[in-house]
Each structure stands twice: as C-alpha cells, then as structure tokens.
Amino acid sequence: MIRLFPLLFISILALSIFQCQSNTSISTDLEEKNFFDLRAFFEAEIVRLQEENPKIKKEIEINGKKEQKTQEGVDFEKELAIFIRSDINKPAWVDKYGVDSIMSSDDLIRVDYIALDSTLKTRLLSVEFEDAMVNKVTITNKTASPLIQSKQQLTFEPNKGYQIANQQDLSLSDDSQLRIIATFER
Question: DSSP labels for the chain?
Fold first, then answer.
C-alpha cells in the first residue's frame, strides 16, 4: 500500500494538470473577439490561396530602385504573416481602440478600429465589406524610438493581391523606403 501512494499521487496530479490544460484550450478557442478577427481571416485566406496556388507578380521598389518578378509555389503563410502580426485582439487592448463603422441600409460597408493610445503599433485597422464579404483590409502601423521612426501601410484585397509600404526615418543614417505591390495571377 505504501508503494501505491506515490503512483496514485502522480496519477491524480497528471490527471488534474491535463484537465487544467484541456479547459484552458477550450476557453481560448471559444474566447470572444472584441474586434474584427484579423488572425482568423488571414488564416482562412492562407488556406484558400494555398489551394488555388496563384502566381504572384511582384513589383518591388527599394529607395527608388524598382524590380519586377513573378513567383510560383508561394508560401502564403510567410507572405501574409506581416498582416497577422497586426492583429489587435488582445485582452489588454479592449479599451485601447475606438470603433467607427459605415452602414448602407442594413449592410456594413466599412469598420475602422482607431488606436486611442499612441504607443500601440497598429494605429488603424480598416475592413471594407461588399455583399457581407471582406473586400479590403487596410492597416497602418507606426513605431518610434529615439533612433528610428517607422510607418507601415498594409493593404490586402482577397481576389487581387496586396501592398506593403514601409518608410523608416533613421536618425543616424539614410532614410529607407520599401514598397511591394503583389498581384495574384490566375
């Protein structure tokens, strides 16, 4: 009986830990989103684009120098990760964004999430709808430190492509500008 006690104790402890982890994952999955679920939208777009597997025609401009290329077999998870990193659905940010929406009749046309706190990276998340489907996502990110100020403009249109514009103002070296226009080709 004495030897069974440690085994019984470890079994009960393991079961209780598993139960706690199981409950945590369920509550995370069912957690209500306060804003547009950017992460879920882009995860669905990644799956859709990987299934469709379109070519991407890219125009890349770095500090005024342009280059064009066409890519096949694109890893959309990597391509669209920059958009997912702008997700504003964090419990601590519930009261950090103002919401403004435009309606036409009973249809939602656009919803804007505007940062109320100037320290937040994502300053604006704008989602446009057409026939109750996302037609366009626009994101403005800003970061600042004593050495660098960065502004990033991201635009995604599900059936067209995406744009990334990044401007960095550096105090110790030359400023930097990057612009990518990616068009889906079917």
Answer: -TTHHHHHHHHHHHHHHHHHHHHHHHHHHTPPPSS--HHHHHHHHHHHHHHH--EEEEEEEETTEEEEEEESS--HHHHTHHHHTT----GGGTTSEEEEEEEETTEEEEEEEEESSTT-SEEEEEEEEETTEEEEEEEEEEEE-SSEEEEEEEEEETTTEEEEEEEEEESSS--EEEEEEEEEE-
Q: Is residue 44 scored above 80 in pLDDT? A: yes
Q: What pLDDT, in 10s, does the model give residues 95-119?
A: 999 999 999 888 899 999 999 999 9
Q: Which is more confident, 5 or 104?
A: 104
